[in-house]
């Protein structure tokens, strides 16, 4: 059963001039919308619920964040129109476009369009300090590792990365908050996070206990970059109180997505709300420091929604016509 958390700013006021964008043609606008996020305790839920609430506030359309299984499921929900908007990482997006999304093998999910760049998702490992685990090589044989919700970016890629690095493990899945509790209770040895930083579940763990945030060695980082669609990334020292220096990692870009059939004016206005005031987004989550117009070019394959492309091209981007969804 889907758990829907609606952050409603006001009653639906489609057609009103009392809200930003009220002067535009609202023909075909939905009376409400949802943003597909991920599990509670992860960055997607905090970030996605926040920007859903912001758009609802500014446009006067009831909207909120929806708890989902993460990027793979969000691609499916947005493709089918079960969610107007969603959040995905570019690896799962590519697999979904190619028809290899495990939720619906063989279905090319081409009715999900790029909306705006969000942030980079670092891959990081956390263990309790009491475990004595301070490096990937020290993870014991058969360790119980939590990889996040089934089908999430973390669950899709991190097990493969661990195997690439020679780690033998028992695979566990669950929401980030639940996995954090299991780590504290000794039911897990390690959590392998792929989420925008700071990850709420890690920040909560730091308050309650002593943790080790484990970075990759240069050799491990190079091996992962050679095998997977990720780039080098450093988790800044001020991200967590536990860190005393930047932590070496790898990352994958995240994008907001929109159902390609949504009205151009609606997606244009929603994109404008998110992208025109970065400070508001950073107040929602610090990962939004990368939610900037100049990062439009981090999408190299997914067609843009015409409404989003219009806003970006008006604000310094140069999205070519063949990268804009035509509906044909």
Automatic annotation (TrEMBL):
Residues 1-20 form the signal peptide. SUPFAM superfamilies: Periplasmic binding protein-like II (SSF53850). The keyword Signal applies. It holds the Pfam family NMT1_3. Keywords: Signal. InterPro entries: TRAP_TAXI (IPR011852). NCBIfam families: TRAP_TAXI. PANTHER family: SLL1037 PROTEIN. This is TAXI family TRAP transporter solute-binding subunit. The lineage of its organism: Bacteria, Pseudomonadati, Pseudomonadota, Alphaproteobacteria, Rhodobacterales.
